[in-house]
Amino acid sequence: MVLSDNINIATKKGLCLRCGACYAVCPVDAISIDLTTDNYPIVDNLLCTKCGKCLKVCSGMFPDQQPYAQKSLLGTVLNAYIGFSNDAKIRRSSASGGLATSISCYLLSAGIIDGVILVRGNISNALRNEVIIASTSEEVKSCQGSRYSPAYVCHRIRNIDMTKRYAFIGKPCDIQSLHKILTVCPELSKAVIYKIGIFCHHTPNYKSTDQVIDKFGYNKEFISRIQYRGDGWPGYFKIFDNNGDVVFQEKYPVIWSKYLLKIPKRCNFCSDCTAESADISLGDPWNMPQENEGGGKNIILARSRKGEDLIRLLIDNNLITCVKISLIQVLQSSKSLLKKKNSAAYKIILAKIRMNDTPYLKINLHLFFNMAKHISYRVKRIKNIFVSNSSKKDKELV
Ligand SMILES: Cc1cc2nc3c(=O)[nH]c(=O)nc-3n(C[C@H](O)[C@H](O)[C@H](O)COP(=O)(O)OP(=O)(O)OC[C@H]3O[C@@H](n4cnc5c(N)ncnc54)[C@H](O)[C@@H]3O)c2cc1C
Ligand code: SF4
Ligand code: SF4
Ligand code: SF4
Known about the structure:
- This protein is an alpha+beta fold and 398 residues long.
- It has helices spanning 8-12, 21-25, 53-56, 66-69, 88-93, 99-109, 137-141, 172-184, 206-215, 252-259, 265-268, 305-316, 327-333, 335-353, 365-397, and strands at 31-32, 42-43, 79-85, 115-121, 129-134, 166-170, 192-198, 223-227, 236-241, 246-251, 280-283, 298-302, 320-325.
């Protein structure tokens, strides 16, 4: 690892995952990011002193080794739940069950924190995102729903006040980069006290969102807001005009499967799909019973004692409803994530053999073990196809 260099190594290799951590820590403001394009961060080489700080916090180039190596598919979990916000309005407007929003609102109203760092649709550029530090429940509620486009969540760490307390909401890679920032700048550990992670399969580029809009032929200038999820579960993709009226809506899974499936290079190598280093991780309960009318539910993983205590506090204050579930149920609901996790070591080793660029990982026995597991899974699948084809042929002959 060349610590005297900067994040140009990550961006040139296409391994940036747009967390914004490099921007947050650069001591000489040499890094610029553009939240309105798919471009990677740019380093002003005239300003850069090659201190290496940006590279130390880059989980695009240096992901945590742990999620690739361990046998457990979900990382540390103290308790797993399925649950939802007891505020019907929050629940209905959220991506899943509204836990991210309810937890943030509670932390603020109870005075446990002063702000939450989170993402929302950009108020003045409807097709793009912005990261805010919300200090009121109203601001938190303006961030409801998932945004399936780049977000650079960590870049806002640069703006925090060290005398205050914050929660941070982000994808698994955002949480990994946050951890790295806290290692490089330990004085921030006292300020960012809760890490709430959301499950993540991949984050599409802005290009994918633009394609949806282009496909339906709307003039971008007349769009005031887009919503990827919300209005029940799994929710609706909606386009709002300048009067706030809905001019287009489609079920979210239709938009996801038609336009948002293109996986960026770096996401392909990702092995942390459930935010293993967060205090609490939140996901969708795919393949589980849902009452569509009332809104959705969350899969909730309490990973740290602090996270578990926080969930208990919300239950005791009648703000959320939660029922414990087994890890097997979590695994069944998140099959596509776990399939991706299982194949990550295989993809990295294969790319290395082909001399392609990959994130930096120590190649060890664990990685080879995970790769072997994935190869045996693929062999079994091919065998199953042959078996089911030949039994079909047998039936046809009969
Ligand atoms: C790109 C992406 C991919 C996902 N893939 C999966 C998946 O495959 N399987 C699964 O079970 N769950 C996935 N999720 C998580 C799921 O969509 C919900 O975000 C999660 O269940 C929390 O729901 P909620 O109702 O508690 O959130 P809400 O109460 O609606 O709050 C959503 C929170 O997520 C934050 N957020 C939204 N978009 C982003 C973003 N791009 N980056 C960082 N933070 C963001 C918002 O700021 C807000 O705080 C994904 C989310 C995203 C953003
Ligand atoms: S000055 Fe340091 S942190 Fe900033 S770009 Fe250069 S190497 Fe990175
Ligand atoms: S720190 Fe984050 S935003 Fe910066 S280059 Fe690395 S992955 Fe990209
Ligand atoms: S798949 Fe992994 S790298 Fe890609 S956005 Fe999600 S958490 Fe980040």
